[in-house]
Amino acid sequence: MEGLESVSEYWFHNYYRVLVIDSSSEYVVSVDVYRRGWLWSVDEESCLSDREYCLVYHRVDPAVLSDKLGDLASLVRRVEIVGVKARGRVEAVNVRYFLSRDRVLKYSDIEKLFYISWDLVGARLEAEELD
Prior knowledge:
By secondary structure, the protein is mostly beta strands.
């Protein structure tokens, strides 16, 4: 990313963070999620030399999410699910949205992306996490 960047941090349900990186060219919204297992194809993989520890990525077509995204749909350029592979086990840990800067993101937009992310990975927040 070029130019100056600012990073904002939002917490939901005591444990789950959303980072919003605001650069001169785009917003990157990074949503913490957690799901045991990996349900998607791997579009990219970045591993340490022993290949025992890797980050895996799956790209999601933003058009698939357009109904859920509502007015954010026109801003979303790319969506990816990120997982961690360790000792043969893969878990989904993050959903990232890359958005154009055609308008300023509001708190309600960030909250919407947080909940869409949990739906996207097919995991539910546990009741104790909602307190």
